[in-house]
């Protein structure tokens, strides 16, 4: 006779999560971030308390931020470990929507467990309940459906027996991977049921990755053999597929240069002779020059967003071969698709190519351009400083990099939005897979500090350096206090350019007047805008902090921050008007067709000229 355990829905859920293991014998779930409220405190809260030693519960200060931290944890583990997040109903649940979208776009696993309204509807409507006048079955959690890879509302305890295995499959499947939402009505959380004891036996997660099909590999090999100027674009799937060694071996064996997407950066060491650096709108001159000349582009593990493809203008002249675990991504831009895991596909493709190599002059040119770009990076990040000029992002990045001379292999840089991801993709150097942790699929302001917390929980031995602008910091900084509470030390380098400098430049590039981006250009009351002391603010959250006046002081402060055992913020004033001019590519941003302003009309004319010129080159 099969034995059973009588548990509440919440107890069964938590016990099941605690039983999941990685192939290495570690808990699959590194913990649960929780902000309790009505709808989850009595059910899941009690269940988590019982398992607090085997499935740690972490308290945060903002639901969106704690979900960002959970997502960053999974990203830092290359999707081999993950976390769950639980909230109350109402605003706690809807605060998860932005984070769920971020995980969805970036193909990263996170288990969302928002509380929900009573299934019985006996006390209907409850506090914080969203009522749909046409559908009584709608709750706030339905907002999570479009941004979840799998969504289920648990309306009976037995439903866990099917919902949880389905959830685990999505979370551990390379093609399906993304956010899973299990909405948990508060009365169902408290209901008891006789569950099979076998349901809670320890289980080793199986990470599902599709193997390549011989025919698709043969077609890809034929496309490469016909090429004289091939280029490999390394995306996040190379890291998540644990394919960094396969990538290096493939590039070396076949003499194919490699360009990196934001998610794929760090898959190949920065100083590898075939590493051209970042590609696309925020990429290097070397990568973009060869991408625009390549006759075959092998896109591995990338979703080919517009920053990678230069709004679909960068390698339109090339035959595109897409290697991706997800067919949706592999087929983009009419690619010849290989629907497979990056490591398995690269190994199979290399075997099919045998001793074939790219044209020697092409490989030699790649070496030369890569060397030239590295020299450019040295020059840009080590520029002499003018005492009368505010530093720019490149100066700060150079100073932070120089401070890591003895520990670069253990540094993880975290960023997400604004100008900094562009400059970091061009200028940051790392030889460690995962040493570059930039969320640029959703480019979500506010991810930075929360993401740094998640990365630190995943890699406690690493120095996690969050580089963030004042705009993103003001948008979401609460998890700096959480990092202090947990002893998860971060170094936060805050660049204060008094507003949204990146969008201010884009606004003017499109003919717009400076408006509502930099603080000086915003509507203000009679006392004007506040002069924000970011160091004082960080100290109020429990961190150590200081403000520095120049790059020399920043370098010295970085040494103090590295020596500290507590989260440490360093703020520095920077110039909002001076981006890194080197590198880059065209990005399509629509300019108004009609305007009373001459600057906008001129920008529109330039926009139309670019569209026509690039369309003509594509047809040629």
TrEMBL record:
Determine the domain of life of the protein's source.
Bacteria
Assigned protein family: Belongs to the TPP enzyme family.
Name of the featured protein = 3D-(3,5/4)-trihydroxycyclohexane-1,2-dione acylhydrolase (Decyclizing)
Q: Where is the Thiamine pyrophosphate enzyme central domain?
A: 217-349
Its taxonomic path starts at:
Bacteria, Pseudomonadati, Pseudomonadota, Betaproteobacteria, Burkholderiales
PANTHER family for the chain: 3D-(3,5_4)-TRIHYDROXYCYCLOHEXANE-1,2-DIONE HYDROLASE, THIAMINE PYROPHOSPHATE ENZYMES
Give the enzyme class: hydrolase
The chain positions of domain Thiamine pyrophosphate enzyme TPP-binding read: 417-571
One Pfam match, by short name?
A: TPP_enzyme_C
Among the GO molecular function terms of this UniProt record, one is:
3D-(3,5/4)-trihydroxycyclohexane-1,2-dione hydrolase activity
